[in-house]
């Protein structure tokens, strides 16, 4: 018998000062049985960091949603589609191989990878040369101590305040606050 995903609900109050995006997002997320709280919360942070793209890329007429993630390796962790169902933004979390990244670049207008975990530096050394030519790709590093701190904010029902200013993100709840300055690798 296979394990069922765990459902999490999050209410994000996003104040993205950098992109003039101020909006509430009610999110339902399924956490795969093999997914950690850390990975799930990095997915949530990636969603918040890219939420402004709803307006910037789609003029407000699009869908920003979670993909099937670990349940389907051909699906992104976060996907933005416009009203024509064109894939405008493909977001991956973790350390994907270079071939799926290249495939994502052929499917979407823009691809963003948020690497985290203590092994991210080793992963980047191995994949950097293979993805250097991909013009549609951005790669960001979330320091592992901060991604672990994000995991401490995970609850089945979350009320999160998100502030994005000068490229940094602060995620706060009744359990605490985490300040992250993502590092751009590409």
How would you describe the overall organization of this protein?
The protein contains five helices and eleven strands, in the order ββααβββαβαβαββββ. By secondary structure, the protein is α/β, with parallel strands linked by helices. The protein has one domain: Restriction endonuclease-like alpha-beta roll fold. The strands form two sheets. It has a six-stranded mixed beta sheet.
Beta percentage is: 35-45%
Structural class: alpha/beta
- From the alpha carbons, calculate the radius of gyration and give it in angstroms: 16 Å
Provide mean pLDDT, rounded. 93
Q: Termini distance?
A: 42 Å
Low-confidence parts lasting 5 or more residues at pLDDT below 50? none
> Going across the major beta sheet, what is the strand order?
3-4-5-6-7-11
Number of helices: 5
CATH architecture: Roll
Number of domains: 1
Q: Considering the protein shown, what is the CATH homologous superfamily?
A: Restriction endonuclease-like alpha-beta roll domain
For the secondary structure, the number of strands is: 11
What is the N-to-C order of secondary-structure elements (H for helix, E for strand)?
Answer: EEHHEEEHEHEHEEEE
CATH class: Alpha Beta
The rough form would be described as: globular
């Amino acid at each position: 018998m296979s394990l069922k995903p765990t459902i999490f609900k999050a209410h994000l109050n996003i104040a993205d000062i950098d992109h003039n995006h101020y909006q509430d997002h009610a999110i339902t997320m399924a956490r795969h049985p093999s997914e950690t709280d850390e990975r799930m919360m990095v997915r949530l942070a990636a969603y918040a960091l890219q939420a402004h793209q709803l307006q910037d890329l789609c003029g407000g007429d699009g869908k920003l949603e979670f993909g099937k993630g670990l349940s389907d390796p051909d699906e992104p962790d976060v996907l933005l589609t416009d009203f024509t169902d064109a894939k405008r933004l493909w977001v991956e979390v973790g350390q994907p191989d270079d071939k799926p990244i290249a495939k994502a670049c052929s499917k979407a207008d823009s691809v963003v990878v948020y690497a985290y975990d203590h092994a991210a530096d080793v992963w980047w050394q191995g994949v950097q040369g293979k993805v250097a030519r991909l013009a549609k790709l951005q790669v960001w590093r979330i320091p592992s101590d901060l991604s672990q701190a994000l995991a401490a904010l995970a609850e089945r029902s979350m009320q999160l305040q998100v502030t994005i200013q000068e490229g940094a993100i602060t995620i706060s709840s009744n359990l605490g606050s985490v300040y992250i300055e993502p590092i751009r690798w590409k």
